[in-house]
Amino acid sequence: MPATSPQHVDQALSTPSPPPSAATPAPKPSHRKLWIRIGILLVLVAAAIAGIPWLIRSFSTVSTDDAYVNGHVTFVAPRIAGQVTRVLVDDNNRVRKGDLLVEIDKKPFIVQVEIAQAAVDAAKADLSFAQAQARATVGQTRSQKFNLDRAMEDVHNQIQLLNLKVATLNSQQATLTLAQANYDRIKPAFETKAVSKEEFDQKSEALDVAKAKREEALQAVYQVRVSLGLPPIPGKGETLSTIPKDLDETFSSVKQAQASVMNSAAKLGVIYPFDKSPSEMIKDFLKRDPEGKENIDRIYAQLLKDAPSVKQAETKLSQAKSNLDQANLNLSYCEVRAEIDGVVARRNVNPGNNVVAGQTVMAVRSLTEIWVDANFKETQLADLRIGQAVDLDVDMYGSRQRFQGRISGFTMGTGSTLALLPAENATGNFVKVVQRLPVRIELTDYDPDKTTLFIGLSVTPHVRINVPPTGPDAGKLLQPYRTTATAPDGSGQ
Q1: Exposed site from 115, 133, 227, 456, fewest CB < 10 Å?
Q2: DSSP state letters, 56-105
Q3: What pTM was computed for the model?
Q4: φ and ψ of 69, to 5 deg
Q5: More confident call, 58 vs 128
């Protein structure tokens, strides 16, 4: 190949190329570029279809990825100590409220029931005996009260008899005075032989008879006075009919009868002071009628009912019955049953194990009493209120299933303040960190038989802040006061 000189190269470069011929066709556009444009258009359409709802949701909802499913758990524990004979469930078994889970040996508790039943039978016999004794005491009290009434009546009769004897004495004294006057008149006439001796003897005899009758009447008065505990001859300034005003209250037979009544009444639980008079004691006794009508039979019936021995026997019977109830209750506790519907978890008991009261043997997780705990940032809480609707996306189900819920409450404290070791911001090394507040979301359309949620599953809640809240306490931040218990002021709050 001949070498080309530099001059020829420069000349060739400076020579213009001839224009293309008009007959030469233009190049066609590439199919590859067309498909690229179509692809870009499709991507833009897909991005719009996916992005517009995302943008709408971003502006109309508040969301967080720090949320999980939570629920109640009931720890199963026996109420008595004993040896386990059977365990009827295992982990992950589904149970209903009342199902038998664990059975404890019943034989020791059956023996305790029999012992308590024997104690009840003995207490019933003691009560019957105490009631019989109380009836005897009531009968004795009745009799002694009659004796007291009769003793007081006897004193009253003696007083009336004394008055009668004194009146008789006064009559005999008048007869004696008349006989003495007749004798005094006839004696001078007899001495002058003006009257006969026979007539004189008659007047003399009448005087002697009057003296004898007066003496007899006087001795009868003395006898009555002595029977009343009075001196035969009254003191200075007193007459034969003079007696103390309270003689019917202080007479020895009356006091003795009163003491007998007080002794019997004390056995029935009626205590009277020793300085109380019989009439006052009887008046107080009649006031014991529950209906206030002084019905003596009703009073004794009430005394029989309230007798200390009867009350003591009734108390022992009540205690024995309580012990029997406790023994039967302990026997029923040998069957440990489920308190809620749910699923068994954490079983740690086997037949032959000895358990004590309160020892956790397993747990039952509720399938229906579950909720979502969502930890929202404090900067997201301004628009959140109770009753707002929430869309719940659970990672387990993905986009195949969306759950519905509503906000039911806010925890009174952020996660850092409720931690086991809360932050010490007063030490001087404080760094501001956005806090998170747990918000409880209750499920509104949850059916565990169709779509089961397990405790701890991750959830992404979307709170629809533009939808008005509904349901109880809608629009509030705090729940109302509970009214299940009565306050001291009776307001129920």
Answers
A1: 456
A2: HHHHHEEE-S-EEEEEEEEEE--SS-EEEEEE---TT-EE-TT-EEEEE-
A3: 0.64
A4: -80, 135
A5: 128
